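Objective 1.3, modelling of assemblies. Example input:
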Amino acid sequence: MNHAQSSPPRPTDVYFFATCVVDQFFPGAGMDAITLIERQGIRVHFPEEQTCCGQPAYTSGFPDEARKVAAHQLTLFPNDWPVVVPSGSCAGMMKHHYPTLFAADPVRKAQAEQLSARIYELTDFLVNVLNFQPEDTGGDCTVVLHTSCSARREMGVHLTGRQLLSGLKGVKVAQQDHESECCGFGGTFSVKQPEISGAMVEDKVKALKATGAERVVSADCGCLMNILGHAAWKDEQEGRKTPSLPGEHIASFLLRRTSK
Amino acid sequence: MSARDRILGKLKASMPATAPALPAVTSWFATHRVVESAADKASRFKTCIELAHAEVHAVTPANWLTTLREVLRSKALERILVSEETTHGCAVLEEFPLHGIDCQTYDMPIEAWKTEMFRQTPASLTAARAAIAETGTLILWPDDAEPRLMSLVPPVHIVLLDTTKIYNTFFEAMTAEGWKDGLPTNSLLISGPSKTADIQQTLAYGAHGPKELVVLMLAKDEQ
Amino acid sequence: MSEHILEFKPAEGFRARSKAVVDNPFLRQSFRGAMDFLMSKRAAQFPDAEELESLRTLGESIRQYNLAKLPTLLEQLEANLTRNGIKVHWAETPDEANAIILGICHERRAKLMVKGKSMVSEEIELNHAAEAAGIGALESDMGEYIVQLANEKPSHIIMPAIHKTKEEIARLFADKVEGVDYTDNVDALIQIGRNVLRQKFLEADIGLSGVNFAVAETGTLCLVENEGNGRMCTTAPPVHIAITGIEKIVEKLEHVPPLLSLLTRSATGQNISTYFNMISSPRKPGEKDGPSEVHLVLLDNGRSQAYADEQLRKTLQCIRCGACMNHCPVYTRIGGHAYGTTYPGPIGKIISPHMLGLDATSTMATASSLCGACGEVCPVKIPIPELLMRLREEAFSAPHANPAMRGQGAGYSSLISAVWRGWAAVYRSPALYGVATWLGSRFAWLMPSKQGAWTSVRVPLKPAPKRLRDLLKERG
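Predicted structure (tokens):
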């Protein structure tokens, strides 16, 4: 399931599908992603009617509800421009599950397939479409990268984030133990099985901290919500005032490192 | 209606109308497994089975009995179970008693001597029908002459392998020999001594079968 | 953990059992170590990504081809086994299977049955049935033997005693095996097991085994093992009974080598197992050993239900390698017993509902973050995450007529369903979404500091004061 599509020519315009999590919880990451793309001389369009890809209902066993929400997104991207999504998991939903979701509805299935072909996860788009070569303007620092399971296994774009970071000359990318293991978020999993999810995020945060990196970056805000949420909770528990594991979306980190 | 009819009835009611295409087994092996020279196959076989903890000796028709005797001496074994219906078994039977090695034969059904087999049979010699280079595997087709328990119960199992009979893969062995047209009561692949890692993933040899597997790779003198 | 394992409804108490393991740092560490070991062993067997991928594709096509012809192949297998002198029995339920096996035992006045590794015999709880019938059933796979001595059940389908340390096993042997002093030397412990079980192989009236592949065209039962106990059970006693699920069948002998390679490399990271034992008939005239009777019991137990649905049928592709559990972050955290089912881990979550009903297993499908590690390593490409989502749908949708699964709708809650309908109503409407998220951002300070399970190990979620769409508007 690699981004098998051959890289299209550099577009003049793209759509941005922010995802509901970025819209509501990480708006800064969304702004930074848009700015990064705009700096490459590309117009970014944000269809205001966008809401959510439908994944929460889909993975929870409510495909009818997911279909209703997904159907609403299908018509929001009429021009033949790439649709950039700053999340591997939402991109995975739109790219790989929309066609299945609408399998029984020929009109929407065609729309879904047409849309699916244009979906790009942000780091994949930066590397493989824009050939973005970040020019580092910051000092030396060490970061650790967490890649979401969807980006890794569904989208096959686990290498592009690392590629972007390794292009920053002052930045050292640390390697955590069990890098490819899930952080334990999994949408409703985190509240339906809180003991297991809690153990997973605990181990993930320990592994990230053990690298000694100054911060964690990720291209998925769902994972960040979980990882940073646990790290901050642990800080509270242990009476720390400054965060022991700060973190941000990779777009924000890239933008800051490449700004003069 | 019997359980059989009910199960088959349910399955047939939901059986897909068309079967998928035949799996491309032959072409997969043709494109993913090397076909090696006799020497390379022998060497790959040896490397693989040694990795699995087998002891391997190169022998010739002229020296294999001497090597076998040395193997027994090195393990302080004074008895060996052989077949009186094979040429290699007969060769041992003729020569070893002269050297003070006691030879047992599998000349009656197991029921007549099961306890002795389990308690007083420290080693055995059988031939291998063939071998597989890819995985370091011996192929045995136990028969009247060298029955099934002969390669299983004695703690030391010694196997005589004709090195001209090494196949590249299991797939090649079964297709070249036409196994699908008839298999014996029991056919076996053996790829090392018995082992287990069931206690804390620690490898231990001699779980239930032979603790030691010795392979005598028999090649013509000039090779 | 042993007190939990006979629980009838695995779904009940699943969270409590998981919590017990998660809260035990020693067990956490020990499962992690064991899974790391198995993952690295497998990885070392597949250095070439193209070879792995093409072999998985071949494995998938072999399993799908054979499942598509399943009823025909079962008839062919039966005909060829019968021709070869092997008696074939059919069982729809565990009770029927036990009755068949114990019937054979009674006819032979059998007192002792030695068992090779068979997950299907665990599935039907044969040991209990045999005990009740006054027949000794002794496990002979080292791991199974240990687990049986401890009065437990296997916690992994390939490594049954993976939850036990050598010290625990040492204590167990010293307590339960006559004349044995405490030793935690693994070689010595294995020798103790070997000596006890050798005597039993000698005495046993019946040998029982599972089956890894049943070959229809030749009428052959194939068994994969390392220890030699499987060969003992199928060779030393006068009667051999094999039991298998109806799905473990291949039409052609040539289907075996690719599946065998996938199985041993995925399971324990071996290029091949020590023994591959192919049995095609009982002892023939003139042969000096081997059982004079060989039986095969074919068990349905819910498999035909999975078979009836095109998507759920993929569950039956499984060749029981256990790689999905070795790579599962959930299994790694809770081990096998917490599941409360014979088959734990990802494969357990998708196969058990067909055996026990979705009513007994409905919450198990929720115990996955859908990370996809299981599907990624599955040697026959079972889309496990997709099947988990399907099971969630089957469990939580309102009960309806002609369901695909027994227990469909068992997890249905009108309240939860209404919540999702409400969610969909908001998220499909830009206007409602706009209002709801605007309110969320303005009144984030009203968000409670306790947000149920989320805040048990995380700080509360708070929407940002301005949404992305607000920031974009401000920027103009």
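Chain A has two domains: 13-129, 141-258.
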